[in-house]
Amino acid sequence: MVKKTVAKVLSFRYKILALILVLLAGGLVVLPKYQKQKGIKSEQLLSNAISPERYISTDQLADKIINQDPSFILIDVRDEDSYNNYSLPNALNIPLQNLLDQDFEGYLNQNQFDVIFYSNDNFYADQAWVLCDRLGYKNLRVLNGGINKWFTTIINPTEPTETMSTEEYKLYSTRKAASMFFGVMYPDQMTAEDSNLNVPVPKKVITVKKKKKRAAEGGC
Amino acid sequence: MKELEKVKRISIASTLFILAVIIGVLTFERPKNMYAINTKDTLEKLVDNDYLMAFNEINKPDIVLIDVRSQYEYEKGHLVDAINMPSPEILSEENQSIFIELKDSKKTVVIYGKTPEEANIPFLMLYQLGFDNVKLLSVDISYLQNKLVANTVNIEKPIADIKAFIDESIKNSNSSSTVIKKVQPAPKKIITVKKKKKKPVEGGC
Question: Would the pLDDT of B201 be above 60?
């Protein structure tokens, strides 16, 4: 009896197999849509974003600009008005809302240059960084503290007080020199030069001094 | 007889095929932490700027605060009822299940850190993973005599007009130098000397 039913079922086996195959084929239609994930994975993005390596300090940047380092491009992600008012030398303006426009992809997605984002602080620059990093762009950096820190450290460095270490004084003098490079003038600088000039005038020794100075400068 | 053998082979092959498919389906694992939103849509939302939340809005009932600072700082002091979730760990399974739960119960998740910049990265990550109930609290956390103080800050506010500052400095230095010239106007030769001195400086550079 059992044998008989088994035989009966077995006689249908090709039909059953065919039915399963058809069902599987039908299942393909029901499969959830495959979302294509462009760029890097979220875990990777998070670990990249947390790493402090992606920041560049204002001092480092000032050094690069003054030494005419050709290996980087500056991207200003603020709006056009602030860019036109003040911007770092040779910076390119890409307002945040236009960041992913086709026109700018060539600047951001390349291997030749370091891309340094900056904004007033590093808030918008970070956002730009995250979006570009997610797309897998290489060599992206963010100016730590942005233009505000640029102002407080490079353009208008605070004078160290007497209790501070010599390193502070050295840092201050380099920053002050850098600020002069970026167009800031110091009244005390000018008066110091003037007073130096004024003192030796009546003696007419100046010409000798001049020659001495010239030689030294030529050596440079 | 020959035909029977052929049929047998076909049936074996199809059974194996079905088995392979079934095994494939059973062992399939969805990749974790998939992005739900592409970069363009994320950017649109960021431009809208409505993800920011002011400090005086956090007393509403549907709000859950998330502290993304380190555990040490969290224990030192935190806002009332905040959950600690250091930013490197926001993608862990445990924390993700918390976020999914909060999203399902229609609560607004408000992230804060030491500065809005610190909370920015976790916020962006979560938003891109599809948690559109996430907001960013624009406060600075600092301590005053061991008491936690939360100050509202304006994000990306320029602290100074640099162009004006530079112009001003140039103007100041010019005016001060003219003052000196006026003080000693008599020896005009000095001025020529000064010019000569200045020239080699420029050439040397």
Answer: no
Cβ–Cβ below 8 Å for B155 and A151: no
CB neighbourhood size of B81 (10 A): 9
Find all residues with CB under 8 Å of A85, minimum gap 6, and list them: B161, B163
Spatial strand order of the sheet with B108-112 comes to B52-53, B134-137, B108-112, B63-67, B83-84
Q: Say what the pLDDT of residue B184 is.
A: 44
Longest dimension (CA), chain A: 135
To probe the interface with A, which of B69, B139, B169 has the most A CB atoms within 10 Å?
A: B169
Cα separation, B24 vs B27, whole angstroms: 5
Q: Is residue A96 part of a domain?
A: yes
Q: Residue A159: count other Cβ atoms within 10 Å of its Cβ.
A: 9
The answer to the question of residue A68 being in a domain is: yes
CB contact under 8 A, B120 and A123: yes
Q: For B46-101, what is each residue's pLDDT tens digit? A: 888 788 888 888 888 888 889 999 989 888 888 888 889 898 888 888 888 898 99
Q: Indicate if the pLDDT at residue B193 is higher than 70.
A: no
Question: What DSSP element (H or E) covers A195?
Answer: helix A187-198
Asked if B124 and A130 come within 8 Å (Cβ–Cβ), the reply is: yes
Specify the pLDDT at position B56.
81
A10 lies in some domain: no
> Is residue A211 one of the residues assigned to a domain?
no
* Domain of A125, in residue numbers: 42-153
With beta carbons under 8 A apart, name residues in chain A contacting B42. 131
List the one residue out of B80, B70, B128, B134 whose CA is nearest residue B102: B134
Percent pLDDT > 90 in chain A is: 11
Q: Into how many domains does chain A fold? A: 1
**A190-211 pLDDT tens trace:** 544 444 444 444 443 334 344 4
Closest CA to A144 of A57, A75, A50: A57
Tell how strand A92-93 and strand A72-76 pair up: parallel
In A86-184, which ranges are continuous DSSP H helix?
102-108, 123-134, 146-150, 166-181
CA atoms within 13 A on the CB side of A111: 0
* Domain of residue A53, CATH code: 3.40.250.10
